[in-house]
Amino acid sequence: MNSVTAMQLVRAGIKLYPTHGYDGLNAEVIAKYLNISPKIYENLFPDKDDFIKIMLQEFNAYSIGRLSFDCTPQMTPIERLHQIIWRLAVALRCNLDWTHRMLLDSYLDVKIIKRALKIQNEIIARGLMKLLRECYEEQKISDLELQNRYEFLKGAVLMPLIMTDREEKMGVLLDELGSNVPNLMTDAHIQQRINWAFKALFGK
């Protein structure tokens, strides 16, 4: 393969990143995957962080797309919140390997990954809390109480996907619990957890 494009290298990086992480994702690894010379990668991306930045942007566009918290204005705030949290949960479930690796790289203080996670978390937190505020528009809820409800929603729907998957991969779950993990990741069970959370938050 002689005429490799920058985007082909980026897409190879997206496939390889969860296994190799920031430190292990280099010219040799990507070149071997594409059966090309490492020089092709080095010529197109002499700066590794430029490559990682484009890879992260492409991955976000692929995994989440344009996440709009103001979509479908004809819906009530609660309906919009339901739609957004469902989208986030499904995107997370489909990309748990990426999430685990980004969390590990952030823990290892890889600056570009940590910054990307912080930006992503800020967008999601601000969007969800704004929607939550609209859901409780007729009630006087303090900022602290609003944050507590946001943390509950995140903890009830999103965090179990990360923690359960990680514990199962580490082999620390009870055998009978570990065998049920694939079932807990299905659309039906994600929706069930969303329904429970919304019933607790809004009584419906």
What does it look like?
With 204 residues, this protein is an all-alpha fold. 76% of the residues lie in helices and 0% in strands. The chain is built from 12 helices and no strands. The chain has helices at 6-24, 27-34, 38-44, 48-63, 77-94, 96-107, 111-135, 143-157, 159-170, 175-178, 181-184, 187-202. Helix 5 runs antiparallel to helix 7 (111-135). It is globular. The mean pLDDT is 91.
Helix content: over 70%
Tell me the β content: under 5%
Instruction: From the alpha carbons, calculate the radius of gyration and give it in angstroms.
Output: 20 Å
Give the averaged pLDDT, no decimals. 91
Q: Please provide the ordered H/E string of secondary-structure elements.
A: HHHHHHHHHHHH
How would you summarize this macromolecular structure in one to three sentences?
With 204 residues, the chain is mostly helical. It is 76% helix and 0% strand.
